[in-house]
Write a structure and sequence with these properties.
By secondary structure, the protein is mostly helical. Helix content is about 80%, strand content about 0%. The longest helix has about 40 residues.
């Protein structure tokens, strides 16, 4: 099997890059807010970091969903006569 990134869906890649971008922007804003002693910017940066973490977790969910679908499709092609345990 190839590297997961090569087989990853476009949705997964977009969500992961969005999460990384939000985390990066949030960290930069946090540094600027601490150096400039701007409280409102510090709170905004923490919200952006939180949004980036949530986005990253959504990406993990998408990755696990894609993996389950891929494994289910592989099992169906390897054992076409065998029924899945859920269909009983």
């Amino acid at each position: 099997m190839n590297d997961f990134w090569e087989n990853a869906s476009i949705l997964y890649k977009r969500v992961v890059f969005s999460g990384m971008a939000l985390l990066g922007v949030g960290i930069l804003l946090s540094i600027v807010a601490n150096l400039a002693h701007v409280t409102w910017l510090l709170w905004a940066s923490m919200a952006i970091i939180g949004l980036g973490l949530v986005t990253h977790l959504v990406g993990l969910g998408i990755r696990s969903r894609d993996t389950r679908r891929r494994l289910r499709a592989q099992r169906a092609t390897q054992n076409p006569a065998q029924k899945s345990p859920r269909s009983r």
